[in-house]
């Protein structure tokens, strides 16, 4: 299967390296709809929908291999990975296993470990008991935990519409993967310059606490709080990642390009 068949692409003339957008646990890569055009003004961009095939054998290691394959397809000298939540955990894992493929990391509302082990182990059973067609109704009652306080009603409606594309089996499998995931002992192995961003109104995860924790252990990292933003913040009409990413990349990118 070719890259154009497997991945949402927005390749335009721009600076090296290309940006690879790595989605959260939804896996669709459809929630980058606001940020991808903005980033494409500066970089070639490729969005990486998480695989939905071979679900029983899916592990974090197989996802790392899939992401590595894409980076090799689109970049001659590594890529800048922009990732949210689950995608941040995946992208940091790639940076450890294949440092030559990662020029930089922008990690949004992510984590190296989740201590809600009981919830992670019981959630798949609960999700299997709910008709998947009923999930849009469930999401209406979980909006407060997902979105920023000021998220537009139109963006919430867009989120719900795009969330209909989430594949049930692979979503549940990713939850199971997180039940055993722990990157804490290996954070010091990340060599790529890294920008940790965390919304201080995230009610789903303690994103600020985890961002600070990771920043203290990743040598070449920076940390910024996204004031007023929740977990699913990349859909917000007033958030432009380039306003934070571009100054940071201008500082660290030139240094890293001379490796």
TrEMBL record:
Source domain of life: Bacteria
Domain called Serine aminopeptidase S33: residue spans: 60-237
Protein's recorded name: Putative hydrolase
Classification via Pfam families: Hydrolase_4
PANTHER family recorded: MONOACYLGLYCEROL_DIACYLGLYCEROL O-ACYLTRANSFERASE, TRANSMEMBRANE PROTEIN 68
GO cellular component, one term: membrane
Gene3D superfamilies, A to Z: alpha/beta hydrolase
